[in-house]
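Thread: quick sanity check before group meeting

JM: Hey all, I'm pulling together slides for Thursday and realized we never actually wrote out the predicted structure for the chain we discussed last week. Dropping the sequence here so it's in one place. If anyone has concerns about the input, flag it before I start.
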Amino acid sequence: MVMSNIDNVDSMPAPHPASYLALNWLCTLFEQCPDLVGVIKHSCDSNAIEGNELAAVCGETLRRLMNNEPVGDRDVLGLAWVVNSFFCG
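JM (edit): ok, ran it. Output follows.
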């Protein structure tokens, strides 16, 4: 995951500053627990098939991060929130 891949998808001049903190937290977590990436991806994909839009967005965000593709600042913040809430809490 590359921190410079955060794009701003809003009309603001720069990505939300917290999105960099969220991405840093995700990177640290995935370095410490590498198997968690697969668990989260599988969970998101399985729930997205059932029509869960949040899971679909999180799964796509994770895929884009893993492929070093640009992601929106809100998407990174959302993914970090979901991972923290469902997988670390």
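AS: nice. The longest strand covers residues 6-7. The chain has a mean pLDDT of 87.
JM: adding both to the slides.
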